[in-house]
Design a protein that fits this description.
single chain, 474 residues, mainly alpha, three-stranded antiparallel beta sheet, two-stranded antiparallel ribbon, 7 strands, disordered N terminus
Length: 474
């Protein structure tokens, strides 16, 4: 359930309409048409256990001081029972429900507003932007206004904290578990709705994929770009808001709670807030670039993205801040500086790698990378409308070192978040473990799709860039 994105499919400037053979490459574009037993087993495992994992992580902090092993040991030894744990969990409240409904409604309103920040901020690319070509050969338009929504939301947050005092800055932490029930309800409602919509009134039937297996279709999605009306795009809204806008608000609430409990905000909490805010701001500053990432270009919208962005992202990506409320860590100056540098180096790799790909795509290769004219492999692929498209895959710069080198930046940044929490508990390190599994798996499934999409051209690209992620190893 991803918030870490990869630009992998720069569009070429040429296309050629063909009358036959269109379905060969396009048939495997996007997620799978058929489901093997391994994929189905993974889908059923995630559907059954991902909600439980989130519940367990949050419960361990609420009842066991962030220990992941104690509740399991007490249950296995008979010292506690599942019903005892469940009865101690705060229930869904009307306060939490009204707070969550207000939040999602507010973000939906901001999402529907036209962007005016691109007219005020130099170099920022917002407003009306075109996405990538879909498997059906359609290019959708988007109103890019995520930075605007983030800035307005946080301006109101700080105005409340320092002037209006409408609510306590600790409101998110104080209602964290009741909000979990609300997030789950929305995640499942959205997932069920888009499944029904795909059957009864799809936005574009040619961009739908039915495997015939309900569980796989429900999780991985049927519609490619489900929309209500012209502009409300489910995929972009739930990937970018409300979860990612909430990410930094959640961390600020954690910091406020730490100040309330201990009278100060530790440097580790400041590090987590700063480094994760840097990533979130980068996401919104480059939201136009995000339209060319794997989430938009290939993933269909189902439970994986719908529930994942409502529940998994805000509740697992913020574990470091949650942990630091229960276990405040004051780092030595040397350790704090070292962790900050590690996070900034990770961000540099992430940003410069994606900048190289974006520059190459925007200029159609008429640029310089590392001071020289870029090298590339030209590929072709087919859309369902019978159009043959040409694209160029970059093999220069960091993209010549590894096919997914930007993930190195993601992993270094993730490690920095975790190291900020010290070594007393494993819970804050769940994030780096999860991100490693996610990104390695994403490399594999991304390249499987690319192989089907580009055919023999993809083999030429792999020959030019032999390593996936870790040069010399993988």
């Amino acid at each position: 359930m991803a918030a870490h994105k990869e630009t992998k499919y720069p569009e070429g400037s040429r296309s050629k309409h063909l009358t036959n053979g269109a379905g060969v490459s396009q048939a495997q574009w996007g997620r799978a048409w058929k489901v093997d037993w391994f994929s189905l087993s993974a889908v059923i495992f995630l559907l059954l256990f991902a909600p439980f994992i989130v519940y367990y992580l949050v419960m361990s902090c609420d009842q066991y001081n962030c220990s992941l092993t104690t509740p399991a040991i007490e249950f296995l030894t008979g010292k506690t029972h599942l019903l005892d744990i469940w009865n101690k969990m705060p229930p869904l409240t009307w306060k939490a429900a009204s707070l969550y409904i207000s939040w999602v409604t507010f973000q939906a309103i901001l999402y529907m507003l036209p962007d005016f920040f691109h007219k005020l901020i130099p170099l920022y690319r917002g407003g009306l932007q075109g996405g990538a070509v879909t498997p059906a050969g359609i290019i959708l338009n988007y109103e890019i206004n995520g930075l605007q929504a983030w800035l307005i939301t946080h301006a109101l947050w700080f105005a409340n904290a320092y002037h209006f005092h409408w609510f306590s800055p600790t409101i998110v932490f104080d209602n964290w578990i009741p909000l979990l029930w609300c997030a789950n309800i929305l995640g499942y409602v959205v997932s069920i709705f888009v499944m029904m919509k795909a059957y009864w009134f799809p936005t574009n039937s040619k961009d739908c994929k039915f495997t015939g297996n309900f569980f796989y279709d429900f999780m991985m999605g049927v519609e490619f770009n489900p929309r209500l009306g012209k502009w409300f795009d489910f995929k972009l809204f739930f990937n970018g808001r409300p979860g990612i806008v909430a990410w930094t608000i959640i961390n600020l609430s954690y910091a406020a709670k730490q100040k309330e409990l201990y009278g100060q905000i530790t440097n580790s909490m400041i590090l987590v807030n700063v480094l994760q805010a840097l990533y979130v701001l980068d996401f919104f500053w480059n939201e136009t670039w995000y339209l060319k990432t794997i989430d938009i270009c290939h993933d269909h919208f189902g439970w994986y993205l719908g529930w994942g962005d409502c529940v998994w992202l805000p509740y697992t990506y913020t574990l470091q801040g949650l942990y630091l409320v229960y276990h405040p860590v004051q780092l030595s100056t040397g350790n704090a500086v070292g962790i900050l540098l590690l996070g900034l180096v990770g961000y540099y790799f992430f940003r410069i790698t994606n900048h190289q790909k974006d520059l190459f795509r925007r200029t159609d290769g008429n640029c310089k990378i590392w001071g020289t004219k870029p090298k590339y492999v030209e590929c072709s692929y087919m859309s369902a409308d019978g159009t043959k498209h040409y694209t160029k895959l970059l093999t220069s710069g960091f993209w010549g070192v590894a096919r997914h080198f930007n993930y190195i930046g993601d992993l270094l940044g993730s490690l920095a978040y975790c190291l900020s929490c010290g070594f007393d508990h494993i819970l804050p390190y769940f994030y780096i473990i999860y991100m490693t599994i996610l990104l390695v798996h994403r490399c594999i499934r991304d390249e499987h799709r690319c192989s089907n999409k580009y055919g023999k051209d993809w083999k030429r690209y792999c020959d030019a860039v032999p390593y996936r992620l870790f040069p010399g190893f993988f």
